[in-house]
Specification:
Elements (H helix, E strand, L loop, with lengths): L27 H15 L8 E2 L1 H8 L3 H14 L2 E4 L3 E4 L4 H25 L2 H20 L2 H19 L2 H10 L2 H6 L8 H17 L3 H31 L1
Antiparallel strand pairs: 1-3, 2-3
Length: about 240
């Protein structure tokens, strides 16, 4: 996900700045620790419902227990962590219903984002999207679907950045849909990766053509199909548990 932004670039960087209870910006160390724990959770290093021990996290992140509490509070706001009185913190388990709703919400928000990306796209932006598409094709050919899923998230993050739509970027950051990705690997559904490639190609070509309506339609079609794949993944998991 993009985290670096040129000083004269008006488009929003991600993730958004973090502030403490007083409204004073958190320290760089706290921000770095938050990003590291977020990445550890969304990559699956910590499993859903796994207990997060402050002492262990302090050692892992190289920070104090006070900073760990700041990090956990931030990730609780993002919906990645649940903190309970006298029980501590744990990784949030996204329910099946919540997972579907998150992707449906993404479909609405990212469709708007794609429209604005088509309006704002520079030649450099388009080149970056084409480069990511080339990587996606290589990963699909190699059969590395988990790396494909990571590169897919990168493409979506680039489109969000291109759009310069601050409100949508903020809401998408709050959704933290990566937690859905690592708990429900819909990309592993038969045929999904090939369809995803075609859907992404349509999106990139619409943005490259500076066609807002086509870009919006392409993104909506892509994420609507992601909902279908997610529901299939959930159904497969249920059947496997019954078996």
């Amino acid at each position: 996900m993009l985290r670096v932004q040129a000083i004269d670039d008006p488009r929003p960087a991600s993730p958004l700045p973090m502030t403490g209870k007083s409204g004073v910006p958190a320290s760089r160390a706290d921000l770095d620790a938050t990003n590291r724990l977020r990445d550890a959770i969304t990559s699956g290093e910590f499993q859903p419902n796994e207990h997060l021990v402050e002492k262990d996290l302090g050692e892992l992140l190289g920070t104090s227990r006070g900073s760990v509490r700041v990090v956990l509070a931030r990730l609780e706001q993002e919906g990645l962590v649940i903190r309970e009185p006298h029980r501590g913190a744990r990784v949030r388990l996204v329910s099946e219903t919540d997972a579907v709703e998150i992707v449906e919400a993404r479909s609405a928000l990212e469709s708007v984002v794609a429209r604005h990306a088509a309006i704002n796209a520079t030649s450099g932006d388009i080149a970056a999207l084409r480069e990511i598409m080339a990587e996606l094709r290589k990963l699909r050919k190699a059969g590395d679907l988990l790396a494909y899923a990571d590169k897919n998230r990168e493409l979506h993050a680039v489109v969000v950045h291109m759009s310069a739509h601050r409100t949508a970027a903020t809401l998408l950051e709050m959704l933290r849909s990566q937690s859905v990705s690592f708990q429900y690997r819909s990309i592993l559904q038969p045929g999904r990766a090939d369809r995803s490639i075609r859907e992404h190609e349509a999106l990139v070509e619409a943005i490259a053509a500076h066609d807002p309506a086509a870009a919006e339609a392409a993104m909506r079609a892509h994420l609507d199909q992601a909902v279908v794949a997610l529901k299939a993944s959930i159904a497969s998991g249920r059947n496997a548990r019954r078996g």
